[in-house]
Amino acid sequence: MKLSILGPPGSGKGTQSTRLADRLGIVHISTGDILRTAVKDKTVLGKKAHEFINSGQLVPDDVMIGIVKERISEKDCKKGFILDGFPRTIPQAEMLDTIIPLDGVIFFDVSEEACVARLTTRKICPKCGLIYNPTTHPPLVAGKCDKCKGPLATRDDDKVETVKERLKVYNKSTEPLVNFYKNSGRLLHIDASPPPDEVFEKLVEMVQAHERGSARD
Ligand code: AMP
């Protein structure tokens, strides 16, 4: 299965796509994680991306397309993959269709107010990328990652002003992808407002049904 999760920042894409990839035994590719690692390692890409990320803007399409093209052509993607945070613009989606068309795109539907509340209170492990939420998924020990045991942090772009900018950018550049994928019959819709475990069970059911349907076509 070649899938992507589409939704506003804070809709739960990161948490759910990581779990789904694990369940389906396919690769999880988060463009945000790739960029944050590059920023941390101060690579050429990281230096280019830093300002865009911190101001809530999108990294230019040509840069993102290059990264994804290279990543999905690796051997571990042969069995399938879940893209998390890509495509985010129509040109990115059009490019992807020319190399490896997606089988399905899952739209995470959740209100803007809920996204702001989730993003401005969440913590992330800078080492492994695990995401924590004070009510739905608190760490076992306050301020420490369950897996790495290291200190949790707030993402720089989760500050209120940047979150508002990210939502604005989402509405302008990414939301049009809902119709793009609906028109090509590949859009799956999920209500992403319930608690994470509930969303996850529905997500698995939906993807498995879609896979059975695609297999029959
Ligand atoms: P995320 O972790 O998916 O929320 O991504 C964090 C930030 O990385 C975004 O706000 C963008 O600045 C940048 N980014 C990630 N994926 C893309 C993409 N497909 N196109 C452009 N910028 C991206």
Quick summary of this structure?
With 217 residues, the protein is an alpha/beta fold. Helices cover 50% and strands 13% of the residues.
Keywords:
217 residues; two-stranded antiparallel sheet; globular; binds adenosine monophosphate
| Beginning-to-end CA distance, first to last residue | 14 Å
Helix content: 40-55%
CATH class: Alpha Beta
The molecules bound to the chains, other than polymers, are: adenosine monophosphate
Question: Helix and strand succession?
Answer: EHEHHHEHEHEEHHEH
Show unreliable segments: none
Largest sheet: 5 strands, parallel
Give the count of helical stretches. 9
Oligomeric form of this entry?
A: single chain
Strands of the biggest beta sheet: in what spatial order? 2-3-1-4-7
Tell the overall outline.
globular
Specify the CATH architecture.
3-Layer(aba) Sandwich
Number of domains: 1
The count of β-strands is 7
Describe the structure.
The protein is built from nine helices and seven strands; from the N terminus they run βαβαααβαβαββααβα. The chain has 217 residues and is an alpha/beta fold. The chain has a single domain, classed as Rossmann fold. The strands form two sheets. The protein has a five-stranded parallel sheet with strand order 2-3-1-4-7, with helices on both faces. The chain has a two-stranded antiparallel sheet with strand order 5-6. The model has no long low-confidence stretch (mean pLDDT 94). It binds adenosine monophosphate (AMP).
